[in-house]
Each structure stands twice: as structure tokens, then as C-alpha cells.
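Example 3.2
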Amino acid sequence: MSDDDRAPILKWLGRVDYEPTWRAMQSFTDARDVTTCDEIWFLEHPPVFTLGLNGKAEHLLAPGEIPVVRIDRGGQVTYHGPGQLVVYPLLDLRRLKLGVRDLVMALENAVINTVAEWRIHAEARRDAPGVYVDGTKLASIGLRIRRGCTYHGLAFNVAMDLAPFNRINPCGYQGLQVTDLSNLGVTLTTEQLAKRFAPKLLAALRMSLQAQWM
């Protein structure tokens, strides 16, 4: 496959409700075939807690007025809200010759390489997927693979109200502290971050940098 064939479609969706977006990912994945172009969606969600397939309700400490949606990704509970960049790679892993671990590492490395531009040292952990700065979590990962294709993805904290994370055990870890770029001295919008992050993700996935935004 040539580089041009491997160029995905990039979409900035803005702020969109969680459940319709999740259903759209499922529909896209169910309808695709070997000729379907990969897509990567960039967006943010209104406040919502999501609980993974094997998620335990005990990790929802005090959700209050924030809705809880039980979904079909791996992992435990996480929070999405304004000021968080959410990235959904809708990829045919078999066509790309990538394993699930390859995708997780690509997402992590893209975050690490992005924040390195601001001289922030971030790292991944094999025992708890995601990206951390000084032990606090900056980005979370949760995926679903269906028919060799992936959906769900990455949540990258930009400039959030982090208080809702205190209402859960983030990713199932009691006492896990969460941070965002604004607390690390970086000021930009989720859309601005999407445009800076996309080339890093494409490079980490070994996909063509000629991808077009739609």
C-alpha cells in the first residue's frame, strides 16, 4: 500500500454529545469494508462519565448530576468534558499491519512527542495505559476492536475543570491525580491542540502526513 493510500481523513467535530458520537463510531465500523478510508475524529464532549465493558460501579464515587454511560470499550471509568481533546482513530488495524499494543504505544508516543515541544517530560506506563507527567495523568486511552478495526481512543486534557475526576477513581485507580496542559503552563484550545497533535499521531502510526482535514 502506498503512502497516499494510507492517508486517513481527519475530522474536527467540535463539541458533540457522547452517545450519538459513540453510536456513529459503531455504525462506521460495522459498515466499513476493505476499501473504506480510515478516519480520525477530533472533538470534545459535554460533561459525561463513561464506564467500560468490565467497569466496576464502585469506581463511581459521586457522579451527581453528570450522566454516566456504560459503553463497549475496555478499561474502567473516566471523565470527558469541555477543554479535553478526544481523539477517535477509526482504523483498519489489519490493513495497517498493527496490533492493539502498537496502537496504544502510537497514541502514547504522539502525546509524549507533542508535549515535548513545550519541554514537558511525559511518560507511558505498561501497567496503566496512558500518559503521565510527574505521576499525574495527562491522557487516558480506551479502545474497542471489532472485525480487526478500532474505535474509541484517547482523551488528552487541555484546559479543563478537573474537579469531576474527584468524583471517580480515574481509570479504576484510587487516588490517581489528573492534570492538564493549562496546569503545566501551556495555553491553547482543544482545536489548536488537535492541529498540533495530528501530525505526531500520523507519524507514530507510520501513516501518510498528507492526510486532509474535512
